[in-house]
Design goal:
It is built from 3 helices and no strands. By secondary structure, the protein is mainly alpha-helical. Helix 1 runs antiparallel to helix 2, helix 1 packs parallel to helix 3 and helix 2 packs antiparallel against helix 3. The radius of gyration is 17 Å and the shape is elongated. It comes from Streptomyces roseirectus. Keywords: Membrane, Transmembrane, Transmembrane helix.
């Protein structure tokens, strides 16, 4: 049976943690505005994995980690103030 896909010419192992670092930063930033219950933990997880895999964008991963934690802190503050899980408009 013939091989239908071309072999990878460049290794993608270095780009993966860098993409995770950027994604954690973006998700953490968006999570401050909406869906912080879901986006905060995802941002924290992506940042932790990127740091463990040795990303070259360490600053972005740390910002993503910080913003993910801030998402959960904002959610807890609103839950404490309103005694609810959702935003009150």
């Amino acid at each position: 049976m013939p091989h239908l896909t071309a072999p990878a010419t460049t290794p993608t192992t270095r780009r993966d943690p860098d993409g995770m670092a950027v994604a954690s930063f973006v998700l953490g930033l968006v999570g401050l505005l909406a869906l912080n219950l879901f986006l905060g933990p995802i941002a924290i997880t992506l940042a932790a994995v990127a740091l463990l895999r040795g990303t070259t964008r360490r600053g972005r991963a740390l910002l993503g980690l910080t913003l993910g934690i801030a998402d959960l802190v904002v959610l807890a503050a609103f839950m404490q103030a309103d005694s609810t899980i959702s935003w009150s408009l």
